[in-house]
Design a protein that fits this description.
309 residues; mainly alpha; 10 helices; 2 strands; 72% helix
């Protein structure tokens, strides 16, 4: 018997996991000495770069696809994905090693402080396994589970890094601009729909694929036919972009009045936006960012209002 899934519910869970882990990953980044922008002008520079890069990469993929260069796009994109997975694994390993070193050094092996250092190289080599495995799976015949795990890791890494470089106010501006851009590119110019079609036709992993059945075959997937089980498709950016504000809001709220609200309210707002997108936007395909970003922005606005009272 096939195990039935609820695609819409699992898609919302992906957002929940990405948001929580991105906040924790950002803590790992800062604990490892990774610093973001040090000035408003520097944050503004990154803001412009991210906006321009997002639009140009989209247009470049469409340009190359029209000239039958989709396969080269796939290899470049896969390389970037594996690198992001490697970077996330490296930061996690550094954070985990520091924690384990503290645990062994001060609790178990206090008389032998040199012992934890003996395993440093072996410990870090273990964390080469995830990017190696994911790279192999993506370059051979990717299944929807590997694609979703990779997309989740990418969303966590991108949201964490962008939030540190942008800060809360430029993150807020980023969400507003990209929500408008997403709406226009889906309902007006429709080039985002073309981009999704190119991604599926060329097997470029840019979308979360959440089917009703766990034995779903990716080869049956297309924009026109989402497989026998009608899989739910959601762009990686639809999870990563709103999570940028969730993370930056959390960082902004640390040490302030109602600090927990700066995580919880944007986080819940994003969930509300996801629920609206999954269950109430009947028109398909639909832009994800207006609904999800809108929920996160509303949650941040409420948190800010509470802090000002």
């Amino acid at each position: 018997m096939k195990r039935k899934l609820s695609p819409e519910a699992w898609t919302i869970i992906i957002y929940v996991i990405a948001s929580v882990l991105a906040v924790l990953f950002t803590e790992g980044l800062t604990s490892s000495g990774y610093q973001g922008s040090s000035s408003t002008s520097e944050s503004f520079g990154y803001f412009i770069v991210y906006i321009v890069a997002t639009i140009l990469i989209t247009l470049l993929i469409l340009f190359l696809a029209r000239r039958n260069k989709g396969r080269s796009i796939r290899y470049v994109f896969l390389f970037v994905m594996v690198y992001v997975v490697f970077f996330v694994a490296l930061v996690v390993s550094d954070y985990a090693y520091a924690y384990l070193q503290y645990y062994f050094l001060y609790i178990i092996y206090t008389p032998f402080p040199q012992l934890p250092n003996m395993f440093t190289v072996d410990f870090y080599l273990i964390w080469l396994v995830p990017p190696a495995f994911i790279g192999y799976e993506l370059f051979t015949k990717p299944n929807w589970i590997v694609v979703n795990i990779t997309g989740l890791i990418m969303a966590i890494g991108i949201a964490s890094i962008w939030s540190l470089f942008l800060g809360v106010w430029f993150a807020l501006a980023l969400l507003i601009i990209l929500a408008v851009y997403d709406y226009i590119s889906v309902f007006k110019t429709k080039h985002m729909i073309t981009l999704a079609k190119v991604a599926l036709d060329e097997s470029i992993p840019m979308l979360f694929v959440v089917p009703e059945s766990s034995d779903f075959d990716m080869s049956s997937l297309s924009i026109e036919n989402r497989g026998d089980n009608k899989a739910v498709l959601l762009g990686f950016g639809d999870v990563a972009i709103p999570t940028v504000l969730v993370v930056s809001s959390t960082v902004y709220g640390i040490g302030r009045h109602f600090s927990l609200a700066f995580f919880f309210l944007p986080f819940v707002g994003g969930i509300v936006g996801m629920i609206y997108l999954m269950f109430f936007m009947k028109r398909r395909p639909a832009p994800g960012l207006p609904a999800i970003n809108g929920g996160v922005i509303a949650g941040f606005a409420v948190a800010l209002l509470l802090a000002m009272l």
